UniProtKB/TrEMBL annotation, chain A:
Protein name: ABC transporter permease subunit
Segments traversing the membrane: 20-38, 130-147, 154-177, 197-224, 269-290, 310-333, 353-374, 428-444, 473-495, 595-615, 627-645
Location of the protein in the cell: Cell membrane; Membrane
Coiled-coil positions: none
Single GO molecular function: amine transmembrane transporter activity
Organism per entry: Streptomyces mexicanus
Membrane topology: Multi-pass membrane protein
Pfam families given in the database record: BPD_transp_1 (PF00528)
Lineage: Bacteria, Bacillati, Actinomycetota, Actinomycetes, Kitasatosporales
Gene Ontology CC terms: ATP-binding cassette (ABC) transporter complex
Main localisation: membrane
Family per similarity comment: Belongs to the binding-protein-dependent transport system permease family.
Family matches, as InterPro entries: MetI-like, MetI-like_sf
Superkingdom assignment: Bacteria
Keywords: Cell membrane, Membrane, Transmembrane, Transmembrane helix, Transport
UniProtKB/TrEMBL annotation, chain B:
Keyword Signal part of the UniProt annotation: yes
Protein's UniProt name: ABC transporter substrate-binding protein
Signal peptide: 1-25
GO cellular component: ATP-binding cassette (ABC) transporter complex
Domain of life: Bacteria
Single GO MF descriptor: transmembrane transporter activity
Automatic annotation (TrEMBL), chain C:
GO biological process: glycine betaine transport; response to osmotic stress
Keywords (A to Z) from UniProt: ATP-binding, CBS domain, Nucleotide-binding, Transport
GO molecular function: ATP binding; ATP hydrolysis activity
Protein name (Swiss-Prot/TrEMBL): Glycine betaine/L-proline ABC transporter ATP-binding protein
Pfam families: ABC_tran
GO cellular component: membrane
Family listed: Belongs to the ABC transporter superfamily.
Ranges for domain ABC transporter: 50-286
Positions of region (Disordered): 1-20
Classification lineage: Bacteria, Bacillati, Actinomycetota, Actinomycetes, Kitasatosporales
Keyword Transport: yes
InterPro entries in alphabetical order: AAA+_ATPase, ABC_osmolyte_uptake_ATP-bind, ABC_transporter-like_ATP-bd, ABC_transporter-like_CS, Gly-betaine_transp_ATP-bd, P-loop_NTPase
Length: 658, 320, 363
């Protein structure tokens, strides 16, 4: 007890004498000693089928809300109106490109028209290279035999992105202009981004019914926060002098916003649109669980019969769509700057070329509306069949040849790292772990981080899922360590070599947007239904972010610094460890932060492949009425873990920078 | 410059003519899919729960409703909870394969009165503990629960903390396994795989690599046609032996799988309702269609057609 | 040799006698205090007396501008000079209420602008004032001519008219040919010309410059200073100019206000500062100034004595020493300093050499 009081108490006086790593070490030693003494007491375990009164209360709330949906004015006049509006929007877009309407056996615009529009728009907002990419990508959907599914996904994604931006950009502008608004909004945005979708999927269908509206709203909840955050950031980054100069000329607030702030933040806002699209595509498979049409449905259905090939084919289409939309919006963001500079002949020709392109596109749309060959994608998607069977062969080969290796890797990590750590977390008394977390928060992040940690620990106990929370925390921590190892190795490699960067980056993009469901089956075959499988899935999803951040950090180390150390005669290893990584430590902290958040967002997926604990609680809550409240509580616990680590790492980052 | 323009325009015209005039049929010429719009049936909203057996049921019922009754069938892929919720909101007409779910029955049939039962499907749902065939062959006594403790050490995994691992799967279904393990004094730990996919993959690996595995499973299930799992005998089920969830020490009952429809649909007099009510087949029938879909990778439509064509007599009985 | 008198720049003389006109801007007892309960500081006799450091310790407030009074006459170039942190930039922003003053009066053409409501203030900023900023504050997404027209656009002037006016001003600041460039395609000096043009486009009464040339290279800075002198000569606007560079202040300013820690230290013409520094701070400041370039004969002449020969060349009292040097040294007799036919004093080789030699010693 005395040791704990020492570590968590007078941190301020400690700091002068002891370095931060020493303090952390002391806290951990104290924890280990006390664990040995107090093991197995006050661990707050709760069996899988058991509920607390909070969980039952949440069940009742859910039932009451559901029962009132025909009489409650909130439903009658508010939710229903929203649902109708969004439903109309989705149905309209679907009737244009994906679903037969008005007595036609095909949508209004056929494949040729859509490909034409995609190419034309990409060229108009970007450049001819991305236009070519868009045409190739869209044609590829048809060759895969997934034209209609792709268009359904595109229709839903576009509708969701539109709604997200309609809400997100004004809110973002507001948050950019007002500090108070920003402060109030941030926790809500955190909540929207870390709360597992499974938790609100069922209630959403109760409120907005099964169909396009629910799918769009689910997606918007997840995809609007980046739009809001990035817009706010963009508004805040407009140089103060420019704003002051406009002020000194007597602009009104409205003129200020329309003529100065918005135009100057345009480029950053387009990057926000990009992030919103990526987030929306990440929801494609989840939305399929409430009958959203499209590629997600193909993936989910294929997995019922463990059909990896078909799932991979559809997953590949999602990846291609993500890459096309990403590159087009990125090009659009860059265009505003480059276009006006090129000057000369190109600019003079641009207008007539745009007009000619527009006419050509309109013509293609007309043709695809009228003629069968341009309306329905010809062929029977043999490319897709080939891709599927190739993927099947590849996974079978991997399963047959690697399982010895993978089992060994699993056992090393599980017995060597995961099991001891999990035991330490779950078998310590809850207050001991809580104190340790608060103390670590204090040492690494300062007083505010410690307070946040204390509040989160308290609430975590309140959810009744402390023990499950600790099990999840153990897996999350191990996954994050692996993510950071990969991040450091590949990040440094990519940061030092532009060639490696160019080669590896597309793979990272693909790993980030490929729906996890697609690779769960091969992973299950390789590692079994274990916590390690969940960890590997989380690492696949989270490592690309960490790698990219570290690569950028290493690349941004000033050339002159590296040059100076080289001139002193440092070896490559010395340059990396003594210069590039330390100078990029801001990036390392950010990568840890983002890595952790991304790992946490995979907790629920982990629950589907043997991770148990919070992930399983959420999945079970989604599947079983009696467990709904518990699932919601588990979702809250995940949010709490996320908020706690986000605040501690951010505070730590601020202190290392200071 | 003008000459270039003219050449370009000419090229475009040729291309335009090629795209419009020379090639093929206009949309609407063939008017496919219009044959069954006679309107007496209307729209039939069929929930499809996420397992292949159900998908087989839905495929056949939808095929018959569409081709024999002229219904416009809308399939909705939903988890059970959400499908039942749909009875109340009017978005789901029928659930074709319900496994017990007494809680949902109480909520929607007894309390809210938005759903009614539409009788048995004829399928028998068997839930229990199963081992891969190689294991049952190598150790025939393993199918008796009394011998399980003898083999517990063989079932150890990285997840089971020194005990034998009992792998539970899909969280959609209530399991008594934790209570069973305690009450039968088995040296096992329940590990949650978390999804049917994980469970099937585990059995597939176990059979292929001759690994030890015991877990929670059920039939009818298409996977049984790929790997015929062997059921472990638990103490026999007697009515009432599962009354107290904490003290359960007996096997799961055999479920007569049933059909649930929305109250509105039952009153509507739709021919589709009669079809659902009369729909009745065996586990073998379902497994066959499920095999077409899952193993032979046929589309739902094609699988249903194949079965319906071969079993016209059964279908006729449903249509009476 | 009376031509020497005409070598004093003409523009400087337009405002030789500020007393005889009503001031454009009068600033009285102006305070700007940052911090909690800032408004209490100027009211409290006790707090006013504290040094900046003491005030910070006592109240947590920073007084950026403390009790400043001055007047700016029409057509005058009024320079506020001080080191960084002296409050000069805050002061100039208080004049147009880009920063809200804590207390005091800012009277512009008889109106206390502290009493103006938002609409009136906007009107003043649109028609009467304009400002040139250290970091330009241009809009990167607009062409040069559109940047210049921005102020006209927001007051609602039609496109054709404002573009025509903008082109005129662009030409006036010497940017003809760059109308359709974007700001980041221009050098720093040219960007500041755009800033200058934008300020001039609205035809304001007063131009405020906030250290406009500190971010520029020395050579370009000199060009820009000459440009301001030229423009002042052409358009004759009243200017308030903020700088931390004494030579710039002396070169441009009719009168110079020196600030330190938010307070006025001295306000006067360049030769007054050099010739009669108010305290050691100013003396230190002006120590390295080439005195011959600043001081006029008025400051170095001595009363004529009986034995002085009075047939030397005649010079005016406001002739700068450097310009008189040759004439005085070349003459065999000491020069007479005469104003309106009245003999004020005489300047001999000795007096001239004292300044010039002192200047060399100081450099």
């Amino acid at each position: 007890m005395a040791a704990v009081a020492d570590t968590s108490g007078p941190v301020a006086t400690w700091r002068q004498k002891v370095t931060r790593p020493m303090a952390v070490g002391a806290i951990l030693v104290a924890w280990l000693v006390l664990f040995a003494v107090l093991r197995g007491r006050q661990t707050l375990t709760l069996a899988a089928a058991d509920l607390t009164s909070l969980h039952r209360w949440l069940n009742d709330v859910n039932d009451t809300v559901g029962a009132g949906r025909d009489s409650n004015p909130l439903f009658l006049y508010f939710f229903n109106e929203i649902r109708l509006a969004i439903d109309h929007l989705v149905t309209f877009v679907q009737s244009l490109i994906s679903q037969p309407t008005a007595g036609r056996p095909v949508p209004q615009i056929g494949w040729l028209g859509v490909v034409g529009i995609a190419g034309y728009l990409s060229w108009a907002v970007g450049n001819w290279r991305v236009a070519l990419l868009a045409v190739a990508g869209f044609t590829f959907f048809g060759l895969q035999g997934l034209w209609q599914e792709s268009m359904d996904t595109l229709a839903l994604t576009l509708s969701a992105v539109l709604v997200a931006l309609l809400i997100g950009i004004p809110l973002g502008v507001w948050a950019g202009l007002s500090d108070r608004c920003n402060k109030i909004m941030t926790p809500f945005l955190d909540f929207m981004q870390t709360m597992p979708t499974f938790v609100y999927l069922a209630p959403l269908t109760l409120v907005f019914l099964i169909g396009g509206a629910s799918a769009v709203i689910t997606t918007v909840i997840y995809a609007a926060p980046p739009a809001i955050r990035i817009t706010a950031h963009a508004i805040r980054s407009v140089p103060a002098t420019t704003v002051e100069a406009a002020d000194s000329l007597g602009t009104t607030r409205r003129q200020q916003l329309l003529k100065v702030l918005l135009p100057l933040s345009q480029r950053t806002v387009v990057m926000g649109v990009n992030q919103t699209i990526m987030a929306a595509l990440a929801m494609v498979t989840i939305a399929a669980l409430i009958d959203a049409p499209g590629l997600g449905k193909t993936v989910v259905q294929a997995l019922q019969s463990l059909d990896v090939g078909t799932a991979f084919n559809a997953g590949l289409a999602i990846v291609v769509m993500a890459i096309v939309l990403d590159r087009v919006t990125t090009a659009a963001a860059g265009r505003a700057d480059t276009a006006r500079r090129t000057g000369g002949a190109l600019v003079r020709w641009r207008r007539p070329l745009l007009a000619a392109g527009g006419i050509g596109t309109a013509f293609l749309v007309y043709v695809s509306h009228t003629y069968v060959y341009a309306a329905e994608f010809p062929g029977d998607g043999t490319a897709g069949t080939h891709i599927a069977s190739w993927a099947d062969t590849a996974t079978t080969w991997l399963q047959d040849h690697l399982s010895g290796l993978t089992n060994a890797a699993r056992d090393v990590i599980t017995y060597g790292l995961l099991n001891p750590f999990q035991t330490l977390l779950t078998d310590s008394p809850w207050w001991l772990v809580g104190l340790t977390l608060v103390a670590l928060g204090a040492v690494l992040g300062g007083r505010r981080a410690a307070v946040t940690a204390a509040v989160c620990v308290g609430l975590l106990v309140g959810t009744g899922l402390w023990s499950d929370g600790m099990t999840t925390l153990a897996s999350t921590a191990v996954a994050t360590v692996l993510v950071m190892l990969l991040g450091a190795v590949f990040g440094v490699w990519m940061g030092r070599s532009a060639l490696v960067d160019r080669l590896v980056r597309p793979t990272l993009d693909a790993a980030q947007v490929m729906p996890p469901f697609v690779y769960l089956v091969p992973f299950l075959a390789l590692f079994g239904a274990t916590r390690f499988t969940a960890i590997v899935a989380a690492v696949v999803y989270a490592a690309p972010v960490a790698i990219k951040i570290i690569a950028d950090g290493v690349r941004n180390v000033p050339e002159s610094t590296v040059e100076a150390t080289t001139s002193v005669g440092c070896t490559t290893w010395q340059i990396i460890t003594k210069v590039q990584l330390p100078v990029a430590r801001g990036a390392l902290t950010l990568a840890t932060n983002q890595g952790l958040i991304y790992v946490l967002s995979m907790v629920v997926v982990g629950g589907l492949v043997g991770a148990g604990a919070l992930g399983y609680d959420v999945v079970a809550g989604f599947s079983q009425g009696q467990l709904y409240g518990k699932g919601l509580a588990a979702g809250l616990a995940i949010v709490l873990l996320g908020v706690m680590f986000d605040r501690i790492t951010q505070a730590a980052a601020r202190r290392t920078r200071a | 410059m003008a000459r270039h323009w003219r050449a370009g325009a000419a090229g475009l015209t040729v291309l335009g003519l090629a795209l419009t005039g020379c090639v093929g049929a206009k949309v609407g010429d063939t008017a496919a899919g219009a044959k069954n719009a006679d309107g007496s049936c209307g729209t039939f909203n069929l929930a499809v729960n996420p397992w292949v057996g159900y998908q087989a049921d839905a495929a056949v019922v939808a095929y018959v409703a569409q081709h024999d009754l002229g219904c416009k069938v809308t399939k909705k892929n939903l988890k059970e909870e959400i499908a039942w919720q749909g009875f109340g909101t009017g978005e789901v007409d029928a659930v074709l394969e319900n496994w017990g779910h007494d809680d949902l029955k109480k909520k929607y049939i007894t309390d809210q009165k938005t759903a009614v039962s539409a009788g048995q499907t004829g399928n028998k749902g068997v839930i229990g503990w199963w081992v891969p065939p190689w294991l049952a062959k190598a150790h025939p006594d393993i199918t008796d629960w009394r011998n399980l403790n003898k083999y517990a050490a063989n079932f150890r995994t990285s997840e089971s903390g020194g005990k034998g691992q009992l792998l539970d799967g899909d969280p959609s279904y209530v399991t008594n396994d934790a209570a069973l393990v305690t009450n039968l004094k088995l040296n096992y730990k329940v590990v949650y795989a978390g999804s049917e996919t994980a469970l099937i993959q585990a059995y597939r690996n176990a059979e292929k690599n001759k690994q030890w595995l015991i877990g929670y499973f059920y039939e009818p299930q298409w996977f049984m046609t790929e790997v015929p799992l062997v059921k472990v005998d638990l103490p026999a089920y007697t009515p009432g032996c599962d009354a107290d969830a904490a003290k359960i020490a007996c096997d799961y009952p055999v479920y007569g799988l049933d059909k649930i429809v929305s109250a509105r649909f039952a009153r509507s007099g739709s021919p589709a309702y009669q079809l659902v009510k009369n729909f009745h087949w065996t586990n073998e029938d379902q497994n066959l269609v499920a095999k077409y879909i899952a193993v032979n990778k046929m589309s739902d439509e094609a699988a249903a057609k194949k079965w319906v064509d071969a079993n016209r007599d059964k279908v006729e009985a449903w249509l009476k | 040799m009376t031509t020497a008198q005409t070598e004093v720049p003409h523009w400087r003389r337009t405002s030789q006698n500020p007393e005889d006109r009503t001031p454009v801007i009068s600033v009285r007892r102006l305070w700007k205090v940052f911090g909690p309960k800032a408004e209490q500081v100027p009211q409290s006799e006790e707090l006013c007396g504290l040094s900046r450091r003491e005030l910070m310790d006592r109240t947590g407030c920073t007084a950026a501008v403390r009790d400043v009074d001055f007047e700016v006459s029409p057509g005058e170039v009024f320079v506020v000079m001080g080191l960084s942190g002296s409050g000069k930039s805050t002061l100039v922003r208080c004049l147009t209420r880009l920063i809200e003053p804590t207390s005091g009066e800012v009277v512009f053409e008889g109106e206390d602008i502290r009493g103006a409501d938002a609409r009136r203030l906007r009107e003043l900023r649109r028609r009467k004032f304009s400002m040139v900023f250290q970091h330009f504050g241009l809009l990167p997404h607009r062409k040069v001519v559109e940047n210049v027209a921005f102020g006209l656009e927001i007051r609602g002037m039609g496109r054709g008219e404002r573009m025509r006016r903008a082109r005129e001003v662009v030409e006036l600041v010497g940017l003809a040919g760059y109308e359709n460039s974007y700001p980041d395609q221009l050098s720093g000096g040219m960007q500041q010309r755009v800033g200058l043009a934008r300020a001039l486009a609205g035809d304001p009464e007063v131009l405020f410059f906030d250290e406009p040339f500190s971010a520029l290279d020395p050579l370009i800075r000199r060009d820009m200073q000459n440009e301001v002198i030229r423009l002042h000569h052409e358009v004759g606007k009243t200017m308030v100019f903020i700088t931390h560079d004494l030579s710039e202040a002396l070169k441009l300013g009719d009168r110079i206000l020196i600030m330190r820690d938010g307070k006025m230290v001295q306000c006067g013409t360049g030769d007054e500062l050099v010739g009669a520094p108010a305290d050691d701070y100013v003396r230190d400041f002006v120590q390295d100034v080439p005195r011959g370039d600043v001081l006029t004969l008025r400051w170095i002449m001595r009363p004529a004595q009986d034995d002085d020969a009075l047939d030397g060349p005649e010079l005016g009292p406001d002739v700068v020493v450097r310009e008189a040097t040759r004439a005085v040294l070349a003459a065999e007799k000491p020069a007479k300093v005469v104003e309106n036919g009245k003999l004020l004093g005489i300047v001999g080789d000795e007096e001239i050499l004292a300044v010039v030699a002192g200047q060399q010693g100081g450099a």
